[in-house]
Amino acid sequence: MRRVKISWFDFHIKMFVIVLAALTPLILFLATLNISNMTGDSYINENRTETLKKGDEVVMHTCFESTLEEYKNKVWTCQTDSYMDRGNQEVVFLEGFSGCFSAEYLKKI
Question: Considering the chain, what is the average pLDDT of its residues?
C-alpha cells in the first residue's frame, strides 16, 4: 500500500471539514430551539404579569442591592412590564440597570 504524503496545513483543513460536517446537524438542531441570551419584546409580552407596568416607579427593598449606597432609596423607572423569565422568576427591566431585576424586591411608589 502506497502512503500519500500530506502537508500539515492540508491535514488540519481536512480535519476541520470532517468535524464541521459532523457537527452541522447539532448546530442546526440547537438553532431551532431559539435559545437566546437576549429577552425580546415578544417573549416579555407572552409571559407578562400584572405586578409592574412600564413607567412604574419603584425602589429596591430587602435585597443586597438595596444596601448599596448608590442604590439605597434610588427611584427606578420600569423599562418593561414585569414578566416570568425562563427560570420562572418574576422580573422586570429597569432604566439604568444592567439586566433584569426580581420584582419580589421592588416596591411600587
Answer: 89
pLDDT at position 53 over 90:
yes
The amino acid occupying position 33 is L
Residue 61 has pLDDT above 90, yes or no: yes
Identify the domain containing residue 67 by its residue range: 41-108
Sheet holding 76-77, edge to edge: 76-77, 57-60, 106-108
- C-alpha dist (Å) from residue 94 to 36, 56, 86, 103: 20, 10, 18, 10
> Does residue 74 fall inside a structural domain?
yes
Report yes or no: 92 and 81 within 8 Å, Cβ to Cβ.
yes
Cα 68 from Cα 45, distance rounded (Å): 31
d(CA 54, CA 19): 47
The reported pTM is 0.64
List the Cα angle 3/13/28 in 5-degree steps. 130
- In the chain, the number of structural domains is 1
* Interatomic CA distance for residues 87 and 13, integer angstroms: 41
